[in-house]
Specification:
By secondary structure, this protein is an all-alpha fold. The protein has helices spanning 2-19, 21-41, 54-66, 77-86, 115-118, 124-150, 153-165, 167-172, 179-203, 207-225, 232-244, 246-249, and strands at residues 102-103, 106-107. Strands 1-2 form a two-stranded antiparallel sheet. The longest helix has 27 residues, at 124-150.
Length: 251
């Protein structure tokens, strides 16, 4: 009798938790955002100098502001987003027509981007904050993707914990780099790919919603490839995943 009573109570508790499942997910995501904001935004103004590849990407961003022509091996999406952020700061790019940057060997570049760190406006801070914001979104996207891949809340918590506290992921989310944008779009691409294969079978959604999720998958893939060409691997992964699950989508 006692066992039966405890079983009834446990069953009631399970039904209540399943009914308010979205509340649990919201609480977890809120906690993730709070921790991610702390790890990515705290003391983001330090160090007040160029770090690692900020030498390249900060320079490219200021070149967009000065309308100087340049060629980069990576597509421009992330740099254009950062240039849009920079355009809303008091920073003014220098004059690219200054002849002292031209030699018999051609254009040797400029150092206007160093003013991002030395001027009173400290325009490098909004740029780093923009990247940090994308890093926070990546943590949320990781939880969403893990839930779509395996449906286990505990597995999703483990996955998002790894992304939130990984030293390299945190570092690239605190500097003027484009990797945080790539990580976000890749994670979303994989998440939407798994989501669109689940909707017809688990949720009974009409096919038009599956097509909409497919569209989001394509947009995220396009954005990932527009940040870095290394996202071609994600194209291959999503393509193979969709082809293998075509029989499931037809049900």
């Amino acid at each position: 009798r006692d066992r039966s009573t405890w079983g009834d109570h446990f069953g009631t508790l399970q039904s209540m938790l399943s009914r308010f499942s979205w509340v649990i997910d919201l609480a977890i995501v809120s906690a993730v955002v709070a921790v991610a904001v702390q790890t990515r935004f705290k003391d983001i103004e330090n160090p007040r100098n160029i770090v690692f590849d900020e030498t390249h990407f900060a320079k490219f961003v200021t070149w967009y502001g000065s309308q100087h022509y340049f060629v980069d091996i990576h597509p421009p999406l992330a740099k254009l987003i950062l240039a849009a952020v920079l355009s809303h700061t008091p920073f003014n790019a220098g004059n690219e027509t200054n002849p002292r940057w031209w030699t018999t060997e051609g254009f040797i570049g400029n150092k206007d981007f160093e003013l991002l760190y030395t001027n009173d406006e400290m325009a490098y801070i909004p740029l780093r904050q923009a990247v940090a914001f994308v890093g926070v979104l990546s943590c949320v996207a990781m939880y969403f993707t893990a839930r779509c891949v395996c449906s286990s809340r505990w597995a999703a918590v483990v996955a998002v914990t790894l992304v939130t506290f990984d030293n390299l992921v945190v570092l690239q989310s605190r500097l003027i780099l484009t990797d945080a944008f790539l990580v976000l779009f890749v994670i979303l691409s994989i998440g939407f790919s798994f989501l669109c294969t689940q909707l017809p079978t688990s949720s009974g959604f009409p096919p038009r919603r599956t097509i909409l999720i497919w569209a989001f998958t394509g947009i995220c893939l396009g954005c990932a490839l527009s940040v870095k060409l290394t996202a071609l691997g994600t194209f291959a992964f999503v393509g193979i995943h969709q082809v293998r699950l075509l029989p499931v989508l037809r049900k």
